[in-house]
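EI: anyone free to look at a 337-residue chain?
SC: sure, send it
EI:
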Amino acid sequence: MSQNKDKTDFLKRVRIFRDLTGAELRSLCQVMHERELQKGQTLFRQGDAGRELFVVAAGTLGIDVTLDDGKRLEVAEFSEGDFFGEMSIFEKEPRSATCHAKSRSRLLAMKDDAFFRFVDSNPAGAGKVMTHMLEVTRSRLADTDGFLSDMVQFGEEARRRAITDPLTGLYNRRHLEEALEEYFNKARSRTKPLAVVMLDLDHFRRINETYSEKVGDQVILAASHIFSSHLRPADVAARYGGDEFTFILPETDLQTATALMEDIRRAVEESDLLKDVLPDGEHRYAESGMPKVTTSQGLACFPDHASSPKTLREAADGALYRAKELGRNRVVTAGPA
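SC: here you go
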């Protein structure tokens, strides 16, 4: 399996990598290296530093622990297509068991720093991998002690942090950029519409300057709750940066997307978010002369306004700019492609 194509073909068949695109698989191959073991050879011992994830390409490996009386107990066996060592990626703790080859074996290995490089360069792909990792790990640990379940939860938290904005819990910009391409390709291949919305909070810079960035963060958080409560389960909401948000609305035509965004626009305007988050409430808000928090939104749809992910987002961004020019607090649709 020395050639990248061989690695890619193999990884396509591995459960935790099954949803990766061809580009994501090729990127993954670049950060994985091969290991070969003879029958009886030890891969790592209980207590060794754990900084590596393994996928079995061929052969069988056993995992065993040392009991209080010194005897060894095999607790797991892994064969072709199985993965193990994932918790070492998140924990950075010594190995809790010993691994040895039960037959001549070949592995694909990935060190923790290589894994996080993959996360940085392919956040959407890394999210898919970690989701499947956790599904498998949960099933393995269904009947085990509570401390192992805690380890799984820690891993899930690490996955969440890799693809979400820490303030709002929405997806972050890195995840959005890959997700948009993925959703666009699906829409085009299935001949389905796809809507993208770029949204800004109006006068947000003035809020930060008048009150504080802490108050500004509270306004962003309150607005994100409104977005989440109105968007549908299949929709993707991301904080693009600062007070700017982006929504991906799969299988959504222009009319449906416009109605949904108008609902969000009205909900934000009617909520009076700034007054609600100020420490001394209504009195301080009344004295400031600050306008209500509202939204300016630019909406673009495929195939109406664009023929690629890049031009779709650019069309939505141009519509957002026009919404601000026209006086803010409105939803503006992009012009024809």
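EI: The CA atoms of residues 59 and 105 lie 4 Å apart.
SC: 👍
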